[in-house]
Specification:
Largest sheet of chain B: none
Radius of gyration of chain B: 47 Å
Strand content of chain A: 35-45%
Largest sheet of chain A: 4 strands, mixed
Number of helices of chain A: 3
Strand content of chain B: under 5%
Oligomer: heterodimer
Helix content of chain A: 10-25%
Shape of chain B: elongated
Amino acid sequence: MVRVVWVMLLFLSAVVQAAEPVPNSTAPTLPAAAMSSQLQDVKTQVMQLNRDLFLLEEDLLFPASTQLGIFVSMDAGVLMPLDAVELRMDDDKIGGYLYTQQQTQAIQRGALQRVYEGNLKSGEHTLMVVFTGKGPQDQPYRRAIEHKFIKATDPVWLEVKIIDDTKTQQPALEVKAWPSTH
Amino acid sequence: MAKYALSFFLLWLCQPALVVAESLAAESPHTVQSLDYGMALYEDFQGQSIAALTQLMAADKRGRMNSRDVFPQLLLGNLSLSLGLTKQAEQVFSQFKGDQQFHDPVNFYLGKFYYYQRQPTQAQALLEGLKQLNAEQQQERLYYLASIAMQANRLDLAQDYEGKILKDSIWKAYISHNLALAHAQQQNFKAAHQLWQRLYRQDNKNAELTLLQQRARLAEGLIYLQQNQLEDAQKMLQALPQSTPWLAGAVLALAASETDAEQAQQQLNWLQSLPGHDYEKSQGLQLSAQLAEQQKNKALAWQRYQSGLSAYQQQQNQLHEFLGGGFDALYQQWLTQRTPDALSSLFETDSMLNQQRQQGVQLAQLQASLTKNAQRLPELQEMLATRQQAHQQRLNVVSLQDLQTRQQTLKTQYAVLDNAALSGQQPWQWASPSLLAQQQKWQRAQQMWQNNQTQFADGTQLNTRLLRIKGALLWQLQEQSISDKLLVKNARREIQTALDHNQQQIAKVQQLLTQAPDYLQLSQRVRDYQQQITRTQQQLQQLQTQFQQQTQVRLHQLLQQQQQVLKTHIADLHYALARLSEAL
């Protein structure tokens, strides 16, 4: 009997260890002290390779002369919770996106979502962005913005901003064109 | 006995915790400072640290990130730290040392860096007195300071910091729990109880807090057990859901401490109803048999000893299997937290193994990201080849040199027309051959008349006729000239159109040539990456093998220890059965 309890208490000691915050269980943690520098070097190599491949893909798939990037950002996002977005270029649908709660929260917290990356011919174009979803009182909403721009040889990066207009209590949309050296 | 358990309380106070960059966004909640930074935040907020770091490293390499862009740089450092790239993190953070404009956020991250590097003195010096931080960062800062104070056994100071953390913050929950444990270790159960009560009252918003509250209740339950307050302990444990980790062990402890046999049996029945935890349940059967034996119910005791023996033997067989050859499978199960029930408590309570698992998972993530990239390369190579071919075909159709030669020819033709045809200086040059022949005849007649006009009887009449003919010739010439001018004008227009068209063609080809990527260079880059990835994959594989071997040594040790424990249990049960069999 005594042995049973001793073994069991040894096990239970783990329960009363000091706890450490792990706010996001999917994210990795710091290495143990015994982590070898060799491991760190390999990790660095892996990250550098990831970076280089990322750049290669950027160069290859979206050359600057034809590159078009469309991004979504928002401020508080209270008046227009982000559910879905549809993108049209010169009346042709070029993309769309359905948001998860986690993604919406990320954008609300100041992050920027690249909703589209592609190539576009030089000339004048019209972008139409349509947001749909359900508002605070479960009211369906639909808001759209049209933006005309000229594509020359520099890349075009357009940020579609969702702004809560506190005066009118209405969501507002705005398109910001980023300079090619952002 | 319980004191023995308590001696383990604070063994792992300084374990490294997760480094998160979440608070960075709050610096500028609704203003995107740069596209790369905004996109990196998007990845990071979804737990995609590798993708976020890749984005920022790419921006940095492309020169899109100024070294003085403090927040993107801090995020870069923070992400590097979270992935264990401490050298890179230190390099990033160090460049901001002494920065006055962003003094507080910079010191916060530097302090955090030293905290995780286990250099509490430096960390404390940097973290104290920081004011220009957002609310989230402030809570985190106070957590680090409280933890450092606890490590120095300054519980009063730690308590002060704890009091300053906002009541619904997760950081407060952690520090409250840790402080309560520290007080319990110093036998100050009242203070511990108060802290835990505060933790239970915290607004339960997420799973993480729920888990921590459960863990706290379990710990407090054990404290009651240690103080022999069995009723309180039972109340505390009964408030926990059945799936709470380690609950089975706690219930077993409660039953073992119970002096009332009936109560003890009820608790053991509760233990048997919990999911999983084979080992604790086997111990419960053993305890249950001992209770029956104490109550002189030998038949029941016999039956329970038999059940316990059978359960232990089953676990022993499982251990044999793992030790005999199923070790690789066990390693994978352990890595993905799918350890068999019989072994879960054995492995989960080993802090060294838990730390190693985090490393193992990280290595596996890196390996997966490399494999994914390696798979992309042939696809990119193929795409590159297709594009290069299409580009070459377009260039083959029209040669820039041909176009330029043609342009020169057209320009010459145009110039000839422009200079000669319409100049009007030699009107007869463009006369038709018949008109020219007539004009030459007229010239000869005129010459003849001028030379011999005295011989002509009626010279005046002849002269008049010659003048009329001249007039007629000039009129014809005039007519032809107008028509020629029209022809030339049309020809000029045609040449001009051809010139414009040709010029456009030249511009297109020139654009094609200047804007097309350097395919050869790109192909070379892809080939280089292929080699580098293969090399790195091999290195990573070697490291993983080493890591796996180290981990397996520990797993093996634990399994062998458990085998010994099971052997002892089995021997005890055999002895008990032999004893009972004599009596029966």
